[in-house]
Amino acid sequence: MRLGLGTGLKKIMLTLQTALPAELANNVIRLYCECLRRAKYVGHKQHYTELVVDMVRQQFKRHMHETNLEEIQKLKDDAARGL
């Protein structure tokens, strides 16, 4: 299943691309897409897809204006461990 770029993802991409180096922004966007994919998979298996996907979106939205590179790396590591 391929995820399209929804309005929320487009906003996050624009924010990331202006605030961060290009390579880091692309890594974060890929991580976001992967988290959503896995959330949909796990949610479908457990029959609560909307809840899991919403939790992922909330976490990314909560930190979307973060510009401290060390904090971003920590958040990325935490997200990758959560997958």
UniProtKB/TrEMBL annotation:
<dbReference type="InterPro" id="IPR008011">
    <property type="entry name" value="Complex1_LYR_dom"/>
</dbReference>
<protein>
    <recommendedName>
        <fullName>Complex 1 LYR protein domain-containing protein</fullName>
    </recommendedName>
</protein>
<dbReference type="Pfam" id="PF05347">
    <property type="entry name" value="Complex1_LYR"/>
</dbReference>
<feature type="domain" description="Complex 1 LYR protein">
    <location>
        <begin position="28"/>
        <end position="81"/>
    </location>
</feature>
